[in-house]
Amino acid sequence: MLIDSVAVYQSDNGTESHSGPAASIQSARTIVTRAAARQQWQEQAAAAAVPISNVAIFVPGPLLLSAMELAPWTSLSNTCRGSGPCDLVAWQNHLLGPRDMDDHIVITASSVDEGARALITLCFWLCSHPTNLKLKEVLTEQFASPRPKIDNAHLGNKGLFGLRARIGPGIGRGPRNEVVAEAVKILLADGRFWTEREGYLTLRLHPSHTPIPYRFCIPKATGLIFLLHFLFIGAPLPASPFLFLTLFDGRAIASKFDVDFLSTFISHTSLGLIKRIVGGPLDVPMYSSQGEYCEEYQYLVNIPGVDPSIISTPRSKEEQQGVAETVVSFTTLGCVDIEHHPDFLGTGDGFNVIVEPFGGQTRRHHILEVKSGVKIFRFLDFVETNPEDDPWGDNIETVELVRRFFFHYLLEPGHPRDSNNVISALVDADTTLAATDSVLRARLFLAVATGCTLLPVKPTGYKIKCLITHDHSEDYPTVDEDGNDDFGPDVVINFQSCFQTFTLTNNARLRHLLISENPEEGKDTAFGRAFHAQLLVAYNFYTSQ
Question: pLDDT of 121-176, one tens digit each?
Fold first, then answer.
């Protein structure tokens, strides 16, 4: 399948050209000349109170489309046959003033793999600008020698309006190009590959007897597009966070019954129903007869593989947990056994097209990976849950002190040095190899708090909360029988894996750790060691389930 079989392009003299399946979308989209497009865009931009939301996304290979409806002024020129050039035009959602459609940047790559990786890097940089590096520096750091040649890379900000890329030999038939072509079809499709659950787009699973080509191309392309929707918010409905949790950490985590987490993402009606089904006493049946009059029974009847009569008798804790996971999975994803479905496995492959290395690279894309503990500071929010019970009162700002020690912990490299070997006992890998890893702690923290080590593009609506709970006991500190100070129980930190929340109990022990040391660069604190040890315990617990 050739990439140019889905091309739509427009010449300046008004002659419309189509090739392959693109002709079928002519009735749904108006192709205009560049001059008319420019005029229409200027008129809409002038009238708009907010920036036009037309976020360009990239799919690997020589083609760039909008994740939303193709705008009337879209011009896609694809003349790829064998090793021909590809001209691409894309938009930024921050542009309001008119720009010349011919502003462009040229990348000359030696292969389609290298060109695809270069374009992905460009797209990440344009849409999110997650680093302080200039464009050339970003590309230079991403590619091993020989590096792609970059021409006309003079635009050092997010104001790039058009993009032209020339990619060398290697374009033509092949598995990756088929995935790209299918991805383009999905973008232009009428929803056959998507389904809505609780206001989010999620994967529409097909019967297992679907023909083989769909097993390999459609799900991979769907997974790829879903990741880009997640990063760039480029679809009318956002991608389901439950699909991402399932992909990153499995169904057990994505379907975990947590009221605070679920209330953020699903409707109050659905949440109330789930709470009634799985939140009641285990020894109290929900109904004794005539299940057709029980709303909870009727809901369970529609879930494949579930015996609704389970709620008519007393249940064990394990049975209740199984019902909870099943109901949450069905409510949010529309599928119970999603992890073993071929479409889901193919979708995971689609994610790997971006997340995993390209063209034989042996390392992850750093634009997605957190590169410094500093990067996650803006995603953290420290909150006192009961400030009126703060035993320190106005003497010390509790939140500021906790934040200071926590930031110091994140900025130090490797595992904390521990003379008691507590941390070494919790670490499976060789600690000497991680001694100089400057982001080990940041990645570990993100893995426990959010379920993955990737940072979102924007912090809006995405905060990892540290809830500080004051537990002031007059019994501590005391002096033990040996004459030593006794500060009571150890520091208590509770993590809710993947739910962006953890609780830190401010007891006498924590107060002692915070006031007895002054964080210094290159030195670990007792607070940092205690926090790291409990992070490792939580990580090992959640990843072993």
Answer: 555 455 444 444 566 666 666 666 666 666 554 444 433 334 444 433 333 334 44
Burial of 132 (0-12, 13-18, 19+ CB in 10 A): exposed
Backbone φ and ψ for 38, nearest 5 degrees, come out as -60, -40
Q: Is residue 141 part of a domain?
A: yes
| DSSP conformational letter for 454 | B
Sign of the CA dihedral with 213 first, then 216, 221, and 222 last: positive
State the average pLDDT over residues 206-232: 50
- What does the pLDDT look like over 396-434, one tens digit per residue? 678 888 999 999 999 998 888 887 778 887 886 555 557
Residue 102 lies in a domain: yes
Measured over the CA atoms of residue 287, residue 289, residue 293 and residue 298, the dihedral's sign is: positive
Do residue 324 and residue 378 come from a single domain? no
Q: Which residues contact 233 (CB under 8 A, 6 or more apart)?
A: 55
Three-state secondary structure call for residue 159:
coil
At 1, list the tokens. 């399948």
3-class secondary structure, 18 = strand
**Distance, CA of 105 to CA of 513 (rounded, Å):** 54
313 and 265 part of one domain: yes
Mark 198-228 as b/e (b = at least 16 C-beta within 10 Å): bebbbbbbbeeeeeeeebbbbbbbbbbbbbb
Closest CA to 406 of 449, 445, 452: 445
Which pLDDT score is estimated for 383? 87
Q: What is the pTM of this model?
A: 0.41
b/e per residue 294-329 (b: at least 16 CB within 10 A) = bebbebbeebeebebebbbeebeeeebbbbbbbbbb
Residue 276 within a domain: yes
CA distance 233 to 231: 6
* Cβ-contact 304, 318 below 8 angstroms: no
* Local structure of 87: helix, strand or coil: strand
Name every residue whose Cβ is closer than 8 Å to that of residue 140 and which is 6 or more positions away in sequence: 147
Residue 503 falls inside a structural domain? yes
Amino acid in the structure at residue 366? H
Q: Do 258 and 316 sit in the same domain of this protein?
A: yes
DSSP string, 508-531: HHHHHHHHH----TT---HHHHHH
Residue numbers of the domain that contains 397: 373-543
* Domain count across the chain: 3
Q: 381 with 426, same domain?
A: yes
